[in-house]
Amino acid sequence: MSKGVLVDLTKCVGCGSCTVACKLWNDNKWDDKNPTMGPSAKLTDKNWTVVQFKEVKDKKGEPVWRFVKQQCFHCKEPACASACFAKAFQKTKEGPVIYYPHLCVGCRYCMVACPFNVPKYQWEKAFPLVTKCMMCNTKVEKGEAPACVSVCPAGVFKFGDREELLKEAKSIIAKDSKYVKHIFGENEVGGTEWLYISDVPFDQLGFKTNVTKRSLPSYTEAYMHATPFVGITWGVILTGLYHYTKRRNQISKDNNKNIKA
Amino acid sequence: MASHAQAQKWSFKMTPTRVLLMLLSAVAVGVIVFRLVTGLGMVTNLSDEWPWGLWIGFDVLCGVALAGGGYGTALIVHVLHKEYFHPIARSAMLTSLIGYLLVMAGLFLDIGQWFNFWRPFVSWGHSSVLFEVFWCVSCYTTVQILEFGEIATERIGTQFHSIFKKALPVLMIIGIIFPTLHQSSLGGLYLLMVDKLYPLWWSPIIFFFFLLSSFFVGPAMICVETTLAGKAYDHWVPIPVLQKLIRISGFVMIFYLLLKIYDLVSRGVFGLMFSGTFEANMFLIEMIFGIIVPIIICFSGFSATRKGLFTFGLLVSCGVVLNRMNVVVIGMIRSTGVSYVPSIWEFIVSAGLVAMGVLAYCFIVENFKILEHDDHHGQAA
Lengths: 261, 381
Fold this sequence. Notes:
The complex is a heterodimer of chains A (261) and B (381). Chain A is of the alpha/beta class and 261 residues long. Chain A has helices spanning 17-26, 79-83, 109-113, 137-141, 147-151, 162-175, 217-260; strands spanning 3-8, 37-38, 50-57, 63-70, 89-91, 97-99, 120-121, 130-131, 157-161, 194-197. The longest helix of chain B has 28 residues, at 161-188.
């Protein structure tokens, strides 16, 4: 059973302690130009998680603040891992999608492939690497919650088995009418380990809601499976054509000779 | 024979254009060294929003497509034994070889951990379409160098000539399989971008569109190349040969056009192209000037003139370049929310790589038997 995190956005107060815990646990430097909290907070190579401040309208049309924690969603079938041609991204059985820097070539196909634009690049370095949230995989392997989850003072997160979290999320949004009837991450790109519930529609909070429900690797699987067969068949056809047309030319040449003689 | 070859001197004419090309190459080499030492951030305008830019879009995707003339010609001349087209075989394959070497250079420049470029040879990410591209492009470039061995050994290392000549049919066939696979795989790379690439370009059969366009752009590139070579070396490939060749393109282009319309209609996005958006207009330019007008030229009397052939070649080649840039840049703007303009250095490197290719072409044409084809005609196997 893979682990996941259920995020209840209605409970977040925007304190940002999760972003601090992330920096400390992963030893990421602070970046004055790119704060981890606020209206302009965004994921960078040093900010693996940020809390975006959003002023939105609630159901009554009143302006309200919502705080949206962003990080890698850890797709059940990650596009980055299927895109990587050197296995630098791998999905573990516990759930996290992790990155092995020594395998990375730096082609950045993972960045183009990720539907949520999560992987970031160390653009200013001479030998840059891709970076992203790894869901504190060493902690998750031991059954512990990720650093950001464990420090939250407001009870925003719940860490556990994804399928159970999903059940819980369903019962929460069924019971309480303030929630929108959508669990972000349930079906998006085939499902993600991080699940979100909210009282404000997700698209107003900057979530990419128009993504496919199909797992992204399934788009290329059939193609890659067909490749060796296409290659071999094509080779056989070409060899056949080569000998056939050569012989045909030979015969027509011989016939011409005979006619001339 | 060998002594005669040794007595021949290596020649390379100097002209003002070539001096300019050399200067451009030298500046590009400088930028390349600077980039390899300092990383990508200082030289390029790439960012987290635009991880792939001009070098992948132009140097790699366009380069590979334009270099597709080699495998198409190899298929026609050496596998189907249409010896009618033999006069263009060697120059088409040379352009292709140079094209691929430039693609390899462009790819190498674009990867961040460039000393780690060999990694996919041992760490098999075989679920990735890029894995297929990587293997096929590296194998095909090797095969092309070996194919060129047959030409090179006419002049240097002549004792190996018979080996290369014997190996040629096998190399040719392998040399057609690989490009068929990776030309489509370059499009296949974008299958994952289902929510990112604008629906006029994203398609579940985008790989097939890439394959078809790489095939029909081959003869078009040959028209451009033979016109330029004709001017430079006063060597003219007979018009009927080229005209017959682009007819092959023409039929494939009609098929491409019909398939494209079917694909857009079946996905319910046909109307998007008349929506007046930036993407729609770029798409219309690509289809009208890159596909429809060339088809008309191809099947009209205009294709019986050098001017017509050159116009056809230029339109189709530019059309394919525009298609690839549309996929890499224009079609992605909406999903990233920002736009990307390559830096001056990115342009200089791309131009420099093309300049190096032109110089290499000139040098090889002047020193090896590429264009003199009459004496070849009889000995084709």
